[in-house]
Each structure stands twice: as structure tokens, then as C-alpha cells.
Amino acid sequence: SIQLVRHEDYRAPDYEIVATALEFWLDADTTEVLAELRLRCRLPEPPEYLIFQGESLDLLELRLDGQVVGADRYDLLDEGLRLHHPPQAFTLNSRVRVHPATNTQLSGLYAADGVLLTQCEAEGFRRITYYLDRPDCLAPFTVTLHADREHYPMLLANGNLEATGTDGQGGHWARWHDPFPKPSYLFALVAGRFVVERDHFTTQSGRSVALEVYVAERYRDACQRALDSLKRAMAWDERVYGREYDLERYMIVATDSFNMGAMENKGLNIFNTKYVLASPETATDDDYLHVESVIAHEYFHNWTGNRVTLRDWFQLSLKEGLTVFRDQEFSADQNSRGVQRIADVRRLRAAQFPEDAGPLAHPVRPDAYAEINNFYTATVYEKGAEIVRMIHTTLGPERFRAGMDAYFSRFDGQAVTIEDFLSALEAGSGCDLQAFMRWYAQAGTPRVEAKWQQDLETGSLSLELSQRTPATPGQADKTTLPIPVRVALLDRAGRRQPLRVGNDDLGTETVLMLTQPQQDWTFTGLHEPCVPSLFRGFSAPIILERSDAVLAEPFLARHDDDPFSRWENFQALAIRELLGYIAEPTRALPSGDLREAVAAVTSQWPEDPAFCAELLTLPTEDYLGEQMEIIQVDAIHAARESLRRALAMVFGDTFMAWYQGLAGTYQLDGLSMGRRRLRQVMLSYLLVNDRLRWEAIALARLQYAEADNMSERLAAYTLLVQDIHHDSEDLLMDFYQTWRHHPLVLDRWFSTQLGREEPATLHRAANLLVHPDFDWRVPNRVRSVLGAFAANPTVFHAADGSGYRFFGEQIRHLDGINPQTAARLATVLSRWPRLDAQRRGHMQGVIAELARKPALSRDLAEVLSRCQD
Ligand code: DPP
Ligand code: ZN
To answer: SS3 letters for 53-103?
Structure first.
């Protein structure tokens, strides 16, 4: 069985590393690494042995205080090097060899596109040298890089550049020093040939910071968005948190070969090109938004993650949940707060709610793991961000800020826990937050039930809320949670009413704290009929069950003044309509409530097109599936298509008028982006309107051909290519010919065609895997095929199991190349408990067969084993 690391087994390290000096002789085939570690025992007596983690290292030499260490003094184990009888204080020198060109895991030091670079989080540093590779072991690093000047003209590492020189015979070197003690997971080096786009930022205290983005020559013109976003993020963190950047320069390096989105290495971020590059010709509006938020996210880590780091990997959400919350708030301030919140909740519901409801459910702070890479999950990130948001909502911005100030001043330079975080927030804010610890410890999405009653005579309205959290694997019994409920009461015209409870005047919007299994509140002075608007802004990551849904939703979908809540109720109407249709497919669509809600939107020109686009986008098939005990894959697809068609028929003329009227020149402000998004929604409806379809196809083809930006081009392209009644082979060819040399756009060529919901897509996927431009070593490309395939409900969930089997075979192959990416993709196999009996059997069969294979990675083995529990 699989060996687990457990939270309860945490022990502080026996030794600290006082200073780390590394010297690299870089070469793609064989790189030599010399490490000099100055160690000091933290115990009164040194222990019997000390283990340095190491993986896939060829040890050439080992010295202790200058003396060669005899073979009897150490052992090489699977996990690393065990040194016997370590002295109280000593210097260890090791010389090892590593092989970047054959490192297809993309963890440790690897070669990609002629560049040498590193990824160390979570445990990649041990693939570079023997080390105490744990986040609570902090040291200042000095790093000297030697390389051939022709192939690797630029040599980068963390911190400040101290010296450079030549080595003779075409070699050169550079020495970097990072004065801020850091754990090894934040180490980075990069060697290669780049163009550098530069800018600078003057901090609040007047220091000038050099900003540098390193990209391959062909990407030279696509760096402006990243630099702008970075400067805005730096200014925002000063304004909102008082946090200033601390080194002389901030470097960002872009690579096409990266497992994650990006990595916050101190002073030297390494980014997946997907989240750095943006030009109108190649990037969509969503890409622009993603670049902004990921650039900000990695920047914000400089304080939440780097300056204050983690004691152990169980605390991962301490930096990730907090930093996601920070980047969401940054984006909300840059763009539309309401639309941002809707997007964040969509993501939470698409990825985290299903995770929390299935075999992979785990607390935001897990209790145990086999492979920590498997815990970079939606739960740790997105639900973790929701917990921080609830604390923020509870404290209000000023007290939250005071708490964060206390957190930074107490723990700067330390490796800490989630308890430390809460205690600092308590000290700074003066509020008791202990109950929030339960949100970190308890898995599962709580259900909140709402009931209310109004007495017009006495003018009182009583609201009763109750909570329960369903059992999850390994956690049968659940406790009550502190749940902030942002609430308003709306009269028939949608006006907010004053909130009075007892003698307290709470304004027209307030936050109630639900801390008991059941609680009620009585509001007074309400002589007009009211409807409660609950969980405004999605004030807690729960599922709301309201007893008055049939009455409240149509009203709130039209009148709620909270944009999230209005959208939420609009979605609820659509969901009710779709589930009703699945139960009774002869029913006419759209029914009165939804039709009226849409009519209310379409009766006026869309002043806020981005928000209108959100309202008029139907819930995804996945989200509909989440609403059902057993996911009826085919019925959901059929119902959603029918409703789309029905809405298109009723509102076709308005949709056409909007499509035409919303056209405008390409700009990158929020209004222009919103227009483009709404036009895309309009076009998608027009294509399923029988009367307007031919005109719509012509318009889509024209939009594809004439757009001067990728947002509009890709929107039209995707709709046409995914329309299974339309022959788009000519578009596929044209798109390929135009973009074959641009990897990020070519990824779209791969993924878009796999969105066609027809059986032939299985065959298409198999062909794409042997396409000359397919590369198993590049995660973006792999995801553009396997990820897109698994997201296609019709093909992946084919009733005969062919989709699962095909997918399983590819995962098996990928596991031999890149276990981290294979394990991540394999998590879709956790969906079986909610499938019908036939599909469930097929999916379980694929899991069992995969799990039996020899030589599985620890990553994949753990995911499969948890899927089988
Ligand atoms: N690079 C990942 C992130 O920033 C892990 N730290 O979320
Ligand atoms: Zn992060």
C-alpha cells in the first residue's frame, strides 16, 4: 500500500542550514552541482543520523568539513542520503550530476526549447542536490552559474546579481545572492537565450525596482500586458496591504513547458507562456484577464508565501488560499466586481464542489498525503480563498487589514501554520476567529436551508437558517461551521428595506453569523411585503436550499440589486427549467418564469454587456449534473440544447439586433470586452435559431475571416468547429496553417475540435495524439488533447465506455513521462459514484485496470487508490 505523510507526525528539523552556496556547471545532457551547506544542530545533542533528501542524483563526491566522507559514514537510500553521526555544526560539500535533457517530469532542473530551468515546488529541489528539502528550513542562498556563453548567454537566479565573468573557452559565469532566507522550494535558476522587455517601478518608499520579462525572440511583442499588470499589482499591494517589494529586480521568465500556471520563486518567477503572453492577434479577452490575475497572484506571493512561508505542506492553503483571495480582490478592483465574483464562483462550483462531493474530497488543510503534488487542488486554492473571504467579510476591511499587519510583523522571515495566521488576525483585529479553524479541518460543502415568514400586521419578518454538512470519505461526523450570511430585504419594487433587529439598526445590508445548527432572526418595522436576498456576493461557499424558491427566484432574478445574487437566481431559474424538462421532456420551453426573466433583460439595450452575457449563459452540463443524484449525461445534453434552441427562437430578433449593434473597434477596456463576450453569446444562440441559422453561419464565417483580434476570431471559430451539423474542415485547415508556429494558439486548434459532441471525436482524438505537432513532453499540448477530451460529455462519457478506456490508456502512457500532469488529468475518474450503473461500471473498470499496472508513479497511484476507496 501507499506510504502516507501525516500532519500529526510533523517534527521540527534537527538541523538548520545557516547558509547555502551552490555552484552549477550547466549543460543540457549533464549538469554538475556543487553544494556547500553550513549546518547547525538545533538540539543540545546531535542525533544519530541526518537524512538529506535526494532523488535521481549521481553522487560524485561528499565532504564533511573538507574531509572526504568514507563509505561507512553514509548510506544512499530511496529517499536520499543518510549521514551517520553528524557533528553539532559542520559544512557539507556534495558534488552531484543531474541530466536536464531527459527530465521529462519537469520537476527539478530540466531542458526545454534550448533553455535550462527549474521547478522546485513542492519537492523538486531534491532532484537538484542533496538537501533538507522542507519548507521550514530557510537559508540565504548564493548561487554561481557557469555555462557556455553561446547557448546560454543569460544566467539568472534568485536575488541580486553580484558578479559576472568569463571562464575562457567560450564559457561565462554569474553569481547571485538572495539575502532573504528562503526554503528550497523557492529556489530557481534559468539559463538560455531570451529577449528582455524592461520597465521599472518606484516603490512607496522611493526605491526603483527593475522589472524584466524574459521571453523567446518570437514573443517579443507580447509582454506589455504582463508588465502593466505587474506594476498595477505592485501598486495595489502597497495601497491595500502596505506591502512593498524588497529586491532590486523582479524577473519573469516564460516557458512553453511547464506543469503549473506559474511559480513564485523569489525574485525570479517562472511562468507558463499561457499566463504571460498576450497580444490582440493571439490572445483572447479571457487570456488577458488570466495574465493579469496570475501575474498578480505570483507577485502577491512575495509576502504571502515567500516572506512569510509554510511550516509544512499541510499548510499549503495558508499561502495559496490567501493569495488567491488577494488576486481575486485585485482583479475585482481592476475590472467589474460583480462579474469577477460570478467568474470566481463559477470556477469554485465547476472544480471544487464536485471535488468536495466525491472520493477525492479532503479538508482545505489535509491530514495526510502520499504525494503533495496531488494537493494543489481546487479545495486548497479556491475553497481556501473562500475561507479567507469569509474572515474578511466577518471582520470588515479595516480590522482585516489590522490583522494582516499583525501577521506580517509577527511572522516575517518565518515558516508558520494556519493557527499562526488566525492568531495574528485575532491579535490585530481583536476578534475571536477560532471557529474558522473548522472550515480548514472539515471537508464537504455545507447545505444551508432558509425559511422565512412575514407578518404584515406586526411588521415582523422572521428568518430561520439551518446548516448541515454531508459526510465525506474518512469524515462521517460533521460539526457546525461559522457561516457569514450577507443579507438584504427587498420590497416588491426591489428597494432595500431598513434592517432592524431588536434595537439594532443594521442599515440596508448586513452580515448575519450562522454559528449554530439552526438559528433565527426577527426583523421589525416591515409593513410592505419583502423577499430576503441571501448570501449576497456568495458570502459563504455553501449550497443554499430555500423553501420559497419558486416565488423568490423569479423575483430576485429580475430585481436583486446585488449582481451576484441576481445572476444566481437567474441561473436557478434555468436549472429548475432544465431539471423539469429532463423529468418531463414534453414540456414546452421556455416556461413563463425564465421567459419573463430573459424578456426583462432583452427589453433594454445592454448597458452592462459583460453582466448580461453572464445572465444569458446557461449553466454548464457539468453544473447541471451536480444538481442530480445520478448524472443523466445524455438527458442533460439534450435538455440544454433544447432550451438554447427555444430561447433562440423566442428572442432571435433581439439577439440578432444586439449582435449587430454591439460590434465595435477592438479595445481592451472592460466595456469593449463585455461587448465581445455578449456578441459571442448572441452568436451561439443565433446558430441554433432555425430561421436565422444560415445568416448566422455567414456572420460567424465573416467574423472569423475579418476579426482583427483572437477573441472574436476564436469565438466564431469555436462555434463553427463545434457545430456538428456544419462542415468546418476548411476552417480547421486555415486555422492550422495560420497558427501552426504559435504554440499557445495551436493548443486551441487541438482543443477546439475535441469539443465536437459526436462519436467521431474519439477517432479525432486518437489521430491528434500522433499528429506531428503533438508532444507528450509539453503539458499545455497534452492538456489541449486529453483535458479537452475529458471535458466533452458526449465522447468522454460514451455509454459503451470507449471514452474512459481511451482516456485511461493515454493516462498510463503519460504517467511514464510526466506523473504530475498524468495524476492531475486522472482526477476526472473520480466522478464515477454519480454516474449511471453502466457508465459507473466502465469507469471503475478503467480505474481498476490502471491501478494494476506495474511501475505507476506515486502521484497516479495515490489518485487511483483514493478513487477506489
Ligand atoms: N505556482 C503555484 C501557484 O502560484 C504554486 N505555488 O499557485
Ligand atoms: Zn499560488
So the answer is: ECCCCEEEEEEECCEECCHHHEEECCCEEEEECCCCEEEEEEEEEECHHHC
Residues 465-496 have pLDDT tens digits of 999 999 999 999 999 999 999 999 999 999 99
Report whether residue 310 contacts ligand 1, using a CB cutoff of 6 Å: no
Number of H helices, E strands in the chain: 28, 33
pLDDT band, very low/low/confident/very high, at 346 (cuts 50, 70, 90): very high
Confidence of residue 456 (pLDDT cuts 50, 70, 90): very high
Question: How many domains does the chain fold into?
Answer: 4
- Residues with catalytic function: 298
* pLDDT the model gives residue 725: 96
**For the CA of 304, the nearest ligand:** 2
Alpha helices in 707-833 (DSSP H): 710-721, 729-739, 743-753, 761-768, 779-782, 788-790, 793-796, 802-815, 819-826
Nearest bound ligand to CA 121? 1
- Quick check: is 94 in a domain? yes
Alpha carbon nearest to ligand 1 atom 7, residue: 320
User: Do 408 and 524 fall into the same domain?
Assistant: no
Same domain, 187 and 49: yes
- Same domain? 114 vs 138: yes
- Judge whether residue 168 has pLDDT over 90: no
Which residue puts its alpha carbon closest to atom 2 of ligand 1?
263
CATH code where residue 466 lies? 2.60.40.1840
Q: Name the pLDDT band for 443 (thresholds 50, 70, 90).
A: very high
Domain region containing 435: 309-441
> What digits encode the pLDDT tens for the residues 593-612?
999 999 999 999 999 999 99
pLDDT band at 700 (very low <50, low <70, confident <90, very high): very high
**Per DSSP, what are the bridge partners of residue 215?**
195
* Distance spanning both ends of the chain, measured CA to CA: 13
Mark whether 531 and 578 lie in a shared domain.
no
Answer yes or no: do 79 and 54 share one domain.
yes
Nearest Cα residue to atom 6 of ligand 1: 263
CATH assignment of the domain containing 588:
1.25.50.10
Nearest to residue 218, comparing CAs of 299, 264, 281? 281
Q: What is the DSSP-derived secondary structure letter of residue 367?
A: S
553 and 535 share one domain: no
Does residue 234 form part of some domain?
no
Q: Is the CB of 621 under 6 A from ligand 1?
A: no
Q: Which residue has the cell 498510463?
A: 812
The residues facing 520 across adjacent strands are: 464
The answer to whether residues 379 and 490 belong to one domain is: no
Cell numbers for 88, please give them: 553539532
